[in-house]
Design goal:
single chain; about 650 residues; alpha/beta; Rossmann fold; 6-stranded parallel β-sheet; 24 helices; DNA-binding; HA2_WH; hydrolase activity; RNA helicase; DEAD-box_helicase_OB_fold; nucleotide-binding
DNA sequence: GAGCACTGC
């Protein structure tokens, strides 16, 4: 492994601090306490990454791939693309790309493009070699999101065809070596021309302060209770400073806040302000997290993983880490994605602890034992690609002309079962042909629409059925987490509000009613409030719908309304979701259904307008599994539509399921 | 009568 630095500058340091204990954040001076005055240039020079400018540029010049190990706050994301531009990498009509797993609000430099991994993947559909870019920087690669992994695999391929392309991968310490191994394409005694193929690793320190770590002596049986009592003792014994508590979901968070309020009341403790934080929270409530803590008070933020990567909170001095988060797991045999509370990795634990050291030295209280951390916790989490349904991923690779999906060189390979399942689903949708090639035009069109292929297929079908106006609304609503406001204690009112829009045909049609009402109200937030509808979610529906409208126009498909012909709408939905059909068990007293495809026991989700209605045949949008398998968002269908929509899928194997 | 970590086009 090679490292380069310029004599006279500080030698780059390869951090290797995978052990627990005090985090090895190094911070050079008091300069980290803010920018003070001075020119913009001076400010840039004070960022930790500045010291490595020459080393980074030298490495990029001489290496095909450079891996930058950098802690948060080093300034790498904003500065490195700028250094590259100043060094001439954006000259001669070339550009620099910097990708993130999430959207980022950064200033757009000319000839430097900040974009998400997913968007860059989309760009490859028009420009497979990404030929307009001279350097591509993949930021936060250690998060191993689905799109990041696909992108890394493709970049490695592109590098073979474009030796002049430079890749920068910014990653946390723990992943750096495996990234380097993945991109090391150098063969022994190979005559090297141009940049060396062996990746360089550079390490840049962050701006964080030391965080002292504490563990519990014995395993805790109830992390919510334990988190609350830890908060109480921090409040008792530690100096002022806000507390961030990592829990797994809304339920945990609500319970914890209730417990804390009770305990503070019964013990007469004052000065604690609890704030919940999770993605489903209405915007106004989320903003409370950022409001300054009143003088003499201590803010306690109870958060999901959203505070681990997506949001940065200022003023946190104490972190309480439950050691758990909700994670998605996919079972290719049952074709079901589950959200499960699972132990986090050491990498996550480090990231969480680091949240305590942004303003001054902090403390992190881990609600698990040191022995557990050292001996049982996995070093890194399972990459998303090994925990997901791969239908979207496979169609994207197919669209990029990658035929041998099973032989693709991944940073981490998904299971063959998942890939085969994805191929089967795409085949049944008519997107792939017998040779596993994209069909024309359906396959290419579905690949062009950046949504779940089942949804894309539904949209294409709606054009034939003449109900695309309605279907793109439904597609937009389905891509939003929830349009209802999550409210505890006023469940009854929410249910009543829902009834105002409920359609006998099911949830999708109900969504259409909500959308119509929202438009008729002139997109009023008051109207949303009155009807327990999430205003921001509805704005988002409008936005996504506009995008879908543009995409359909680009595909040369006109929008058309079916003017209230609901049966047509349901047929279009069935054309995409025929595989998700279920039939009510005869004589079932508890609403048990069986899926037509695999005879799995499933139930209508209590949030559905068809809950307790239990029609004989239904099609569902997705399954969510807890103690039971629940079907979310269902519509009634006529079973004959299934054979109409997918004769190849149903005629052979399942005709015996149909009573009529 | 249950629950939804996150993200994107």
């Amino acid at each position: 492994m090679s490292q380069f630095w310029k004599p006279g500058t500080e030698r780059p340091r390869l951090v290797d601090d995978e052990e627990g204990g005090v985090l090895l954040y190094t911070t050079s001076s008091s300069s980290s306490s803010g920018f003070g005055y001075g020119s913009l240039e001076k400010q840039r020079q004070r960022l930790p990454v500045y010291k490595y400018k020459t080393a980074i540029l030298y490495s990029v010049e001489t290496h095909a791939t450079t891996i930058i190990v950098g802690e948060t706050g080093s300034g790498k994301t904003t500065q490195i693309p700028q250094y590259l531009k100043e060094a001439g990498w954006a000259e001669g009509g070339r550009m620099i790309a910097c990708t993130q797993p999430r959207r980022l609000a950064v200033q757009e430099l000319t000839r430097v493009k900040f974009l998400t991994d997913g968007v860059l993947l989309r760009e490859m559909m028009d420009d497979p070699l990404l030929s307009k870019y001279s350097v591509i920087m993949v930021d936060e690669a250690h998060e191993r999101s689905l799109s990041t992994d696909i992108l890394l695999g493709l970049l490695k391929k592109i590098q073979r065809r474009r030796p002049e392309l430079r890749i920068i991968i910014s990653s946390a310490t723990i992943e750096a070596k495996s990234m380097a191994a993945f991109f090391n394409t150098r063969r022994r005694r190979e005559e090297e021309q141009g940049p060396t193929k062996e990746p360089a690793i550079l390490s840049v320190e962050g701006r964080g302060f030391n965080v002292e770590i504490f563990y519990v002596d014995d395993p805790v049986s109830d992390y919510v209770r334990s988190a609350v009592s830890t908060v109480m003792s921090i409040h008792d014994q530690e100096r002022m400073g806000d507390i961030l508590v990592f829990l797994t979901g809304q339920d945990d968070i609500d319970t914890a806040i209730q417990l804390l309020t009770e305990e503070a009341q019964s013990s007469g403790k004052q000065g604690l302000v609890s704030v919940p934080l999770y993605s489903g929270l209405p915007r106004a409530d989320q903003d409370l997290v950022f409001s300054p803590t009143p003088r003499g008070k201590r803010k306690v933020i109870f958060s999901t993983n959203i505070a681990e990567t997506s949001l940065t909170l200022e003023g946190i001095v104490y972190v309480v880490d439950s050691g758990f988060s909700k994670q998605r797991f996919y079972n290719p045999i049952s074709d079901i994605e589950n959200l499960v509370v699972a132990p986090i990795s050491k990498a996550s634990a480090r990231q969480r602890a680091g949240r305590a050291g942004r303003v001054r030295p902090g403390k992190c209280f881990r609600l698990y034992t040191e022995d557990y951390f050292s001996n049982e916790m996995s070093v890194v989490g399972i990459p998303e690609i090994q925990r997901s349904n791969l239908v979207s991923c496979v169609i994207q690779l197919k669209a990029l002309g990658i035929d041998n999906i099973l032989g693709f060189d991944w940073p981490a390979s998904p299971s063959p079962e998942s890939m085969i399942r994805a191929l089967e689903v795409l085949y049944s949708l008519g997107v792939l042909d017998d040779d596993a090639k994209l069909t024309s035009p359906t396959g290419f069109q579905v690949a062009e629409i950046p949504l779940d292929p089942l949804i894309s297929k539904m949209i294409l079908a709606s054009c034939e059925f003449g109900c695309s106006e309605e279907i793109i609304t439904i597609a937009a609503v389905l891509s939003i987490q929830s349009i209802w406001i999550p409210v505890r204690g006023v469940q009854k009112q929410l249910d009543e509000a829902k009834l105002r829009f409920a359609a006998a045909e099911g949830d999708h049609v109900t969504f259409l009613n909500v959308y119509k009402g929202f438009i008729q109200s002139n997109k009023s937030s008051k109207w949303c409030h009155k009807n327990f509808i999430n205003y921001h979610a509805m704005r988002k529906v409008i936005e996504v719908r506009e995008q879908l409208k543009k995409i359909t126009q680009r595909l040369g498909i006109g929008l058309k309304s079916c003017e209230g012909d609901i049966q047509t709408i349901k047929k279009a939905i069935t054309a995409g979701f025929f595989a998700n059909a279920a039939r009510l068990e005869p004589f079932s007293h508890n609403g048990m259904y069986k899926t037509l495809r695999t005879s799995q026991e499933v139930y209508i989700h209590p949030s559905s307008v068809l809950f307790r209605v239990n029609p004989k045949f239904i099609v569902y949008h997705s399954l969510v599994s807890t103690d039971r398998q629940y079907m979310r968002n269902v519509i009634t269908i006529d079973p004959s539509w299934l054979t109409e929509a997918a004769p190849h899928f149903y005629q052979k194997q399942l005709h015996s399921s149909f009573p009529q």
